[in-house]
Fold HNH endonuclease.
Amino acid sequence: MNPLQRALIEKVGHDHGFEHVLASDPAGVVLASARHATSAKVVASPTGGYVLHLLAEEPALLPEMCRTFPHHCQAGSFAAVSEAGLATLLRRAADLTRALPSQAAQDYQASVAAHLAQLPAGLGGTEVERLVRQRVGQQKFREAMLDYWGGACAVTGLALPEVLRASHAKPWSECDSDAERLDVFNGFLLVANLDALFDRFLISFDNNRRILVSSRIGHTDLACLGLASDMTLRWLTDAHMTYLTWHRARCEDATSLPV
């Protein structure tokens, strides 16, 4: 690896979620970030381009990366033919690491502690603290969902943050722990009309990603609500299934729409 290649890798890392250089030598460049726990080793491929090796504490990261980039995944590493391709891989790895459960929970705890430290003495354990925890948690959940779904609706692919909602499958108030409340697999990033329906258990999704509609919605209302038989989730992982099964059980007589 020549000095120009190392400089390009460092620049790409800095601009796409890996702002620190831990090591840079002929064997490769090791990148890290203060915002998440994953580090990345980038080496120049003998045939051109780059090979990315991710060193992750979160076990779900590599499977998610391989699902996102199936044609670039090679035995746990990822090939990029150009700096642009490397940038895409690094950005997605950074986004996923921040979104996946352990990192989101850590960020939540740190943020809650900072907010509670600003409260007047004597308010700990009160309704004020509960509201602070809920507000911070919902903000962190939304940030994680935006990172995980790439800033686009899980169904329509619409990438307009102003109309996207982080929708829980198992609601905040019914979760057994903060880990459940902040779990990025406990829900979907949905455009506002779908979020309202999903939140009220009027739509759900089957294990094949297809939309299910409650019997409470009449056939003549489908078009008005923006519902169509070909609506599917962009992807669905095993980690979603427990929450989705819980949600479907609350969706009255939900069935798929006729094609």
